[in-house]
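Ticket #4471: structure output looks truncated?

Reporter: J.K.
Steps to reproduce: submitted the chain below (637 residues) through the standard prediction queue, then opened the result file.
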Amino acid sequence: MGKRNLYLKTIPVEEALDQYMKVLRDLVEPKWETIPVTESLHRVTKSAVYAKYCSPLFNSAAMDGIAVISEHTKGASEVTPVELIRGRDFQIVDTGDPVHPPYDAVIMAEDLMETGDEDRVRIVEAAAPWQHIRPVGEDIVAGEMILPGHHKIRSIDVGVLLSAGITRIEVAARPRVAIFPTGTEIIEPEETPVEGSIIESNSRMFENLAVEQGAIADRFLVIPDDYGKIKEEIEWASQNYDVVLINAGSSAGTEDYTVHVLRELGEVVVHGVSIKPGKPVILAVVNKRPVIGLPGYPVSAYIGFENFVNPVLAMLGDTVCKKNPTVPAVISKRLVSSLKHREYIRVKVGKVGEKLVAAPLARGAGAAMSMVRADGFCVIPQNSEGVEAGETVQVELYRDLSKIENTLVVIGSHDLILDVIADQMPQIHRNMYLSSTHVGSMGGLMALKRREAHLAPTHLLDEKTGVYNISYLKRLFTEPMVLIKGVGRIQGLMVKKGNPLQIKGISDLTRCRFVNRQRGAGTRVLLDYLLKKEGISPEEIHGYDFEAATHMAVAAQVAGEGADVGMGVLSAAKAMDLDFLPVGRESYDFALYREDLQMPLVQAFLEILKSDAFHEKLQELGGYSWEEAGNIIEIEK
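Returned output as attached by the reporter:
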C-alpha cells in the first residue's frame, strides 16, 4: 500500500506566493532574445531603445501644393494678388516631398488661383516661413529614446520603431512551459472511456492559459501513476524548460507521488494553501526551475493556475499579471464559508435596475461547467464565515461588463428551453444575452421579489384550484405583476431504458431508489401533491431527500447508478435516452413586474417565445406545447 501524503500545514495564498517568489527571484532571471520588430507585438523591451534616424529624415511638404520662397509672397491680398513664376518663385510638391532651400514654405493647392498658364499661379495671401513644412526630426530625432526598458510593445510602438530605423529589438524571451498530466485512470480525449476512465482536459486549459500570459506551452502525454516515470519526466523537463507543471497527484492519495518526487529532486517550498477549491497546490524548485503541482479537479486546477502559475510566468516574461476587473455586486443567496480558507465561488452576474446581482453556481471543485457558465468569482476572504443574501460582495469578472449590463437575468425553475432561448437571443438581437440560474420556482420568485432578477420561470401548482403560478404571484407580491405564458410541458417519471423495475406510477416509488428536485422546485411541489393524493408519506420513499438542481441532473442520475427513477420533463428523459411515464401536463411560465414588460431585453425574449425557430426547436426536443407562448396575463389583486 502506498504512503499517504499528508499536508504539514496550509498557509494563506499571499504568504505562499510571497515565499515562493522570494526563492525564485534568487534563482531565476528573465531570458532575453533579439527578434524582428515586426514580430515584437506584446513583447517586453530589455532596455531603452534609441532612434537610429530622424523622422522625417528631411524637411518635407505637409500638404499638396507648391513650395515657395516666403519672401516672394509678401504683400499678396485680395486687392493686390501676387503672381508667382514656376522655377523662380515656386515648385510643385506633394505631401512628403523634400523641400530644399531657397524654398521655405508650402501653399496648399486649394489656395492657388489659376492664370491659364501652368507655369504661373496667383495667390491672395502671403505665406509665413515654414508654413506647411514638416522640419527634419519634427517627430523623432536620431538618438532620442523611443521606448523605455521593461515596456510592453504596442501596435503603435511597432510603427514608430520602424520609422526610427529600428528593425530588430531585444526583448524578454517567452517562458517555455512543460505540461504533464498524470494518472493511470486518465485517458486522452480521442480514446473510448470505460468505467473508471477520466478524460484528460486540464492540460489543454493550462496550455491556453499559458499562451494568454505570453508563454510557449508544450503539453506532453499522460504519465501513469509510476514513481520512476514521473521522476524521469520532471527531471528532464526541469533541464529543458523554464517552468514545469504537473497536473494531479498533488493531494493525499496513496498514488499521489508528485510531492515525494519533487522532494527527492529539489526543494518543496509550499505544499498546501488556504484556498478553496485548490488546497493541494505544490510550489517547488528543481534544477533552479519552478515546478508547480496543480490539483486534478478542473476548478481547483484553474484557481491554482491563476494564483500561482500566472505570477511566475509574469516574472519570467518581465510582464505584469493580467488582472480581471473587480466590481461590487449584491449576492442573491446566503453563502457559508470556512474560516480556514479563501473561497472562490463561481457566480452569474447581471444588472437588475441600477445594481449588479451575483447568483452563486455549483461550488464543487469538479464542477467544470460552472466555470463555463460563470461570469466571475465572488471571493470570500479567509477568516470569514461567509455572506448573507443581499450583502454587497466583490466579484472578479471574466466576462465583459458591457455584455453583463445587456443581459436578461432569469432566476428560477430549470428547463432546457432556457438554453435554447439563450442561444437564439444574440442571433436575433445582436448584443443581447440571457443568463439563467436554477434555484427552483419558489427560489426564483423570491429572487424576483428582492429585485435580483428580471424574470422568474415558475411552474407552481395550486392544489386547491389546479391552476399554475397565478395564486403564488397574488400571495407574494403587492406590486403590479404580469405572467408571460411560456410552454405547456409533460412531467413524468424518468426510468432506465426498458423500465427494468416495471415502474408504472407514483405508487411504485416506495420500492425503488428515487432522486428528487430541490425544495421550492415546481416539480417537487407537484410530486408532493401526487404523493398526498396516493396517501404516501415522503419518509416511505428512499431518496426523497436526495436532491438534484435541474431536470438534466435528475436524468443523469437515473441514467447512471445514482437512482432508479426521478421526476422531470420529457425533453430531459429524451436527451438521456430514458423511458418516460407521463403523470400530467403543467404550465411553465415567466413572472415579472409589469413595469419591466417594455424593457428591450424582455421584448426580445417575447419575440423569441413567439418565433417559428423557437417552436421548431421545441418540437425537436419533444414534450412541449406552445399555443399560448408569449401571451401576457395581468395579475389582478
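Triage note (M.O.): checked the attachment and the full C-alpha cell line is present. The mean pLDDT is 90.
Status: closed, working as intended.
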